[in-house]
Design a protein that fits this description.
Layout: H1 2-8, E1 12-14, H2 15-28, H3 33-42, E2 46-48, H4 66-75, E3 79-81, H5 85-88, E4 96-98, H6 100-106
Length: 107
């Protein structure tokens, strides 16, 4: 799916997501860290810094998701693609929040 999105759209990843992916892979499957690094190096995306000020965050059930939504808002992305159901509960105008299958069906 990443390749499909990257061909037609500008993929934006925030520093928090990349750091979190590294932490999770190191903890759960350290032998795959090289594969993650290679994937990141070969992927075409725009990297945005996750802001330290989280005051603009909408209320969220899982506060650990706050850096993701704030990064998306500050970066002014059009769409946030996530499988995390907590994001679906948000009532914000922008970005549009879609699960991967919704994105593929619409776009």
């Amino acid at each position: 799916m990443i390749e499909y999105v990257a061909e037609k759209y500008i993929l934006v990843l925030c520093s928090y997501v990349i750091e979190e992916a590294h932490e999770v892979i190191k903890r759960k499957s350290p032998r795959h860290i090289v594969a993650l690094d290679n994937f990141i190096l070969k992927s075409s995306f725009e990297m945005v810094h996750t802001p330290s000020d989280m005051t603009m965050a909408p209320p969220m059930r899982d506060q650990s998701d706050t850096p993701v939504i704030v990064s998306a808002i500050v970066s002014d992305v059009d769409i946030l693609i996530t499988g995390d159901k907590d994001f679906a509960e948000l009532s914000i105008e922008r970005p549009e929040i879609l699960i991967p299958s919704e994105f593929l069906n619409r776009y």
